[in-house]
Amino acid sequence: MADRRAAVAELGAELRALVEAAVRTEVTAEELRHVAKEARRLTDRLGERQREVTEVASVDDLGGRVRMYNPVIGDGHPVAPPIDFVHDGDEVTGHFTLGAMHEGPPSYSHGGMSALFLDQALGHAAASAGRPGVTTDLTIRYLRPVPLGVPLRIHAVAVETAASRTTVRGVITTAAEPDVTLVESEGRFMTLNRAQLERMFAQLSGGRMPPRTVHD
User: Fold this and answer.
1) Boundaries of every domain in the chain
2) pTM, full prediction
């Protein structure tokens, strides 16, 4: 499994480099068509053996929070930064840098990317606090644009619990200025009981039920 995960991560890194090159390239139309033809051949090779969407990836470990194709933390995902969260009690911190593939306004990240990353970070903080769950509410406040090509920092902390709900707050800043908030967020997460988990994931094949959290 370690070898396959390493291979998935290697392919993911090359795909991210390819996507970044593709969205920044100014080569000729002829060259673009040539590359597209090569890409179709590679797609056919990878498509020779694929899992169903109701199957958990063979390289994933839901109990160990290994999600190789998660769009935020997955080393195998072609547009994930990917963010490696460090857990400390009821809070998490991660560092990452965004590229042109994440662009919204010229030279800045798309706002939807910030929402995606914060949703993931807040979910990790809830799980780190022993309250894993699914997002029920997510509020985003955009205070300053998030620059591309600049080392960034994301931080989230669980601040309140009530019954099955956990409230978490998080921010995105630059790594150089962690006290200057670019985007801030507050979310609420509901911890599911076993029956709720079974209903939500009844379609999964192989009986691989998420044992703790569906957010990772």
Assistant:
1) 1-216
2) 0.93
The amino acid that residue 134 corresponds to is V
| 52-88 tens-digit pLDDT | 999 999 999 987 889 999 999 999 999 999 999 999 9
Fold of 1-216: Thiol Ester Dehydrase; Chain A (3.10.129)
